[in-house]
């Protein structure tokens, strides 16, 4: 199942919102006295509550040599607080059948929790505890270091993952964005409790956090409960705001030799940030090129006509201030060069010739029409509103979205294709049997 | 890009058995004159409808030398009908704001789309059309064969844990078709013909060998009328042949080693176990949670947290299947650890649970976890439809009703008894992945 999620990720990125929402989904927003932004959406049909917290504590803060610090901090959140040991935390969670997990990305860290309504007090208490009074005990640090190092090894077993990391390193040379969030074996070994605690104290602060709550609870109830449980959480240093990478790596070909049956290929370069006005036109253009699930040029030419790949797609993923374009596929080693040629040809074609009216309208119809499907579970809704807040899109964003998409013209598509697809800047990563691929 | 997803092997085919079924009492059943069963569950929490057509055919119905045929056919079902061009199906659904896909398992082949209420009629008509009129893509046959081979490379050949699971499955079963991978062996895929597909389609794709599951934001009367209008005219087909293979009892442990490019060793233990038709299935389900449900579970706590010899550990009981199935324990090792050591530790914990009763609190904890996931699972209309569909395939959807009560009735003694009875070393297959570092220069 994991793989499915990964395969879908590329697709999901292109499909942002549209279509009118039912009233209940629109959240209430408030800023608590300690600076935390709270978004709540009441969904009474099931006795459960889902919480998504985004916090400005990503790996971009990792200093050189300290790579993996932010990630290790996030992992350690549920491994010991002033009141509870790691085992007491997991015992409490498991006994109420709740899930609580923390993760770390380049720009933000996140904490997700789902529990039954009847366990809300226990759950919120625990959430508050891990955010305000984690102790990052030495014994647990040692454990989690070992776990992270093993995770780094395990990722080397996933060819797509290897390609991804090599791509990031090439696109963002010398930047935290080019380094793996987990760090390296050596950097993780060197991390000290003192710096982990300092990082936790500095960045895990309410005025750097967005908390999105969806479920069987009202805004008033949750505000009250949060004011109780998060009473001790004090404001800290304000958020630094995301970095803009100062340079992007040049076109290059990166080859990684592995005894695999398939070549795992990424072609890509810099994209556009989420806040850029061209973001929407770029998403429409990319849908036609390779974002459109089973209806894209990439699928037609590489999968359906030639049978070269099972999975082939392109995406423009976006953080607030930066973005990436990637064309991703796997094909058997022997056909890697052919597939790369076709991919480049598709990139050339959409830059040079206008897309058809039909392609344009189908892209727009999908992007606008499929919006409600992105919000078909409470957990998706919780994470959606946290993102809307983080990207500063405004609560009326779902109402605006259809227009943002519908007004895109063929000329817009042509313009953004020429502007944001840059064949001369393509970084090519190939992971596979290089001899069979003909790269050796 | 998950379309036409072949679940790699039966060991993994029911991963979602962990999430629990929808509330069966609200499901409504209808049967058309041509034998097509329709299962409807209204749920108005989000403005979408999931429509699924389930065919009672999967890798289980294939013959030796023809493995992967059910999955191959699933791919070719997207190659058009007299009124829909090849691959146009996906395009029509997408431009109507829907998401669509299909998958094949050992037991079933399923086609589905999720769309808004006012557009779902489009999907209903397209599914009816391809149930009766699929052309199975003349010119696209060879290209699609290559696509499926790429899928196999991606999912199995270059994925160490999947590859281990495949070879272990081939050893765990000697007679029963669950021994074959759903996607098929590479040579079998290569040797499929258009005639094979046409025959398989004719034999199994008929209304009396299928059922429809719909969940979400619709009105029963309205959608039933649409389904009738589209499907009623399709004639009943001949009764498809029954699969009667029965796996003979295993007498003695089987072991399989896979050496392959990988970073970390992986261990898999597969014990034969009954499916949900047995009253023991509830205790087996709870046993899997006691062993590996959450960080405080026995295997996780000992192997991952305390001893740090495994990176991950899982226990999975896949009871929602047509024929008797398995209870598996799987784990990826920490760097530098030996499979033999991990195996010894797992065995030690399994022996303990066969001898000593678990505590009352441990049992209650496992029951609470199952109850929460039962409710969490209702958060997704798609998940609910999947659950109804899998139950219907295995033993009839009404079995879902018995589920929570069955779980509640399990005692500590039951846990010990099923552990003793089914976690029997003589009836298991142990698979070990040994990473190799061949350089392919």
| First-to-last CA distance of chain B | 31 Å
Q: Which band does the percent of strand residues of chain A land in?
A: 15-25%
**In what range is the share of β-strand residues of chain B?**
15-25%
Coarse morphology of chain B:
globular
Biggest interface, chains and residues, is: A-B, 85 and 82 residues
Domain tally of chain B: 2
Order of neighbouring strands in the sheet with most strands of chain B = 1-5-6-4-7-3-2
Mean of residue pLDDT of chain B? Answer: 93
Q: For the residues shown, what is the average pLDDT of chain A?
A: 92
Count up the domains of chain A.
2
Poorly predicted regions of chain B: 1-22
Structural class of chain A: alpha+beta
What helical percentage do the residues of chain A reach? 40-55%
Given the structure, what is the number of helices of chain A?
A: 17
> What characteristic shape of chain A results from the CA principal axes?
globular
Question: Please, could you describe this protein's structure?
Answer:
- The complex is a heterodimer of chains A (440) and B (441).
- With 440 residues, chain A is an alpha+beta fold.
- Chain A is built from 17 helices and 11 strands.
- In chain A, the strands form 2 sheets. In chain A, strands 1-2-6-3-5-4 form a 6-stranded mixed β-sheet, with helices on both faces.
- In chain A, α2 crosses α8, α12 packs across α16 and α13 packs antiparallel against α15.
- The longest helix of chain A is centred in the N-terminal third of the chain and has 18 residues.
- Chain B has 441 residues and is an alpha+beta fold.
- Chain B has 2 domains: 227 residues, Metalloenzyme, LuxS/M16 peptidase-like (Cytochrome Bc1 Complex, Chain A, domain 1), CATH 3.30.830; 183 residues, Cytochrome Bc1 Complex, Chain A, domain 1, CATH 3.30.830.10.
- In chain B, a hairpin with a 5-residue loop joins β2 and β3.
- In chain B, α3 packs parallel to α8 and α9 crosses α12.
List keywords for this structure.
heterodimer, A: 440 residues, alpha+beta, Cytochrome Bc1 Complex, Chain A, domain 1, 2 domains, six-stranded mixed β-sheet, five-stranded mixed β-sheet, 11 strands, disordered N terminus, B: 441 residues, seven-stranded mixed β-sheet, 12 strands, 18% strand
């Amino acid at each position: 199942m994991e793989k499915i999620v990964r395969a879908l990720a590329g697709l999901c990125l292109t499909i942002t919102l549209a279509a009118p929402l039912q009233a209940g989904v629109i959240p209430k927003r408030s800023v608590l006295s300690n600076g935390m932004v709270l978004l709540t959406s009441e969904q009474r049909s099931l006795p459960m509550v889902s919480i998504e917290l985004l916090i400005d504590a990503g790996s971009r803060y990792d200093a050189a040599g300290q790579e993996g610090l932010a990630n290790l901090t996030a992992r350690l959140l549920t491994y010991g607080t002033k009141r509870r040991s790691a085992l007491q935390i997991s015992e409490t969670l498991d006994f109420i059948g709740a899930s609580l997990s923390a993760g770390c990305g380049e720009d933000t860290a996140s904490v997700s929790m789902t529990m039954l309504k009847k366990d809300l007090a226990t759950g919120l208490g625990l959430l508050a505890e891990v955010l305000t009074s984690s102790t990052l005990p030495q014994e647990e640090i040692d454990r989690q270091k070992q776990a992270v190092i093993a995770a780094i090894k395990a990722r080397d077993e996933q060819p797509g993952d290897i390609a991804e990391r090599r791509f990031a390193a090439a696109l963002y040379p010398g930047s935290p964005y080019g380094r793996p969030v987990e760090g390296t074996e050596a950097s993780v070994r060197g991390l000290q409790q003192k710096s982990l605690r300092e990082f936790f104290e500095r960045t895990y602060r309410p005025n750097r956090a967005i908390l999105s709550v969806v479920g069987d609870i009202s805004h008033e109830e949750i505000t009250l409960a949060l004011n109780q449980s998060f009473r001790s959480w004090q404001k800290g240093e304000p958020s630094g705001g995301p970095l803009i990478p100062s340079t992007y790596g040049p076109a290059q070909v990166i080859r990684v030799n592995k005894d695999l049956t398939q070549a795992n290929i990424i072609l890509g370069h810099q994209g556009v940030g989420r806040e850029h006005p061209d973001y929407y036109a770029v998403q429409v253009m990319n849908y036609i090129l390779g974002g459109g699930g089973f209806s894209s040029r990439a699928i037609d030419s590489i999968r359906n006509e030639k049978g070269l790949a099972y999975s082939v797609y392109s995406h423009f993923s976006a953080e607030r201030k930066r973005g990436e374009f990637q064309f991703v596929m796997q094909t058997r080693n022997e056909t890697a060069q052919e597939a790369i040629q076709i991919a480049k040809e598709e990139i050339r074609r959409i830059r040079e010739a206008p897309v058809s009216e039909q392609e344009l309208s189908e892209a727009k119809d999908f992007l606008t029409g499929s919006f409600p499907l992105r919000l078909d579970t409470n957990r998706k809704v919780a994470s959606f509103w946290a993102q809307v807040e983080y990207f500063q899109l405004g609560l009326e964003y779902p109402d605006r979205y259809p227009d943002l998409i519908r007004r895109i013209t063929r000329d817009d598509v042509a313009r953004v294709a020429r502007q944001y697809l840059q064949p001369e800047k393509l970084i090519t990563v190939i992971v596979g049997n290089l001899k069979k691929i003909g790269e050796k | 890009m998950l379309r036409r997803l072949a679940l790699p092997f039966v060991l993994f085919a029911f991963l979602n058995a962990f999430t629990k079924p929808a509330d069966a009492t609200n499901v409504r059943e209808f049967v058309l004159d041509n034998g097509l069963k329709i299962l409807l569950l209204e749920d108005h929490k989000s403005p979408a409808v999931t429509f699924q057509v389930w065919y009672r055919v999967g890798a289980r119905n294939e013959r030796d030398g023809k493995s992967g045929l059910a999955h191959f056919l699933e791919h070719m079902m997207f190659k058009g009908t007299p009124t829909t061009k090849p691959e146009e199906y996906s395009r029509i659904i997408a431009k109507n704001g829907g998401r669509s896909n299909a998958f094949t398992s050992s037991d079933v082949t399923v086609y589905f789309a999720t769309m808004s209420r006012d557009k779902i009629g489009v999907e209903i008509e397209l599914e009816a059309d391809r149930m009766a009129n699929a052309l199975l893509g003349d010119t696209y046959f060879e290209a699609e064969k290559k696509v499926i081979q790429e899928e196999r490379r991606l999912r199995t050949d270059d994925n160490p844990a999947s590859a281990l699971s495949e070879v272990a499955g081939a050893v765990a079963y000697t007679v029963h078709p669950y021994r074959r991978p759903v996607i098929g062996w590479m040579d079998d895929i290569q040797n499929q013909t258009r005639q094979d597909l046409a025959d398989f389609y004719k034999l199994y794709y008929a209304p009396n060998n299928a059922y429809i599951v719909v969940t979400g934001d619709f009105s029963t009367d309205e959608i039933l009328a649409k389904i009738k209008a589209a499907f009623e005219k399709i004639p009943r087909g001949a009764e498809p042949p029954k699969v009667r293979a029965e796996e003979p009892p295993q007498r003695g442990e089987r072991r399989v080693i896979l050496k392959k490019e990988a970073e970390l060793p992986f261990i898999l233990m597969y014990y034969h176990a009954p499916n949900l038709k047995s009253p023991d299935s509830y205790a087996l389900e709870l046993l899997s949670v006691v062993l590996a449900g959450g960080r405080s579970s026995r295997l996780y706590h000992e192997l991952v947290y305390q001893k740090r010899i495994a990176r991950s550990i899982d226990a999975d009981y896949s009871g929602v299947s047509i024929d008797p199935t398995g209870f598996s324990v799987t784990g990826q090792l920490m760097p530098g650890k030996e499979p033999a050591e991990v195996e010894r530790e797992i065995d030690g914990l399994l022996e303990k649970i066969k001898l000593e009763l678990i505590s009352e609190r441990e049992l209650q904890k496992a029951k609470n976890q199952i109850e929460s996931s039962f409710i969490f699972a209702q958060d997704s209309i798609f998940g609910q439809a999947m659950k109804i569909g899998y139950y219907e395939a295995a033993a009839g959807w009404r079995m879902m009703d018995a589920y929570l009560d069955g779980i509640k009735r399990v005692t500590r003694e039951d846990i010990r008894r099923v552990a003793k009875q089914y976690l029997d070393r003589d009836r298991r297959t142990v698979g070990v992945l040994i990473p190799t570092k061949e350089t392919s220069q």
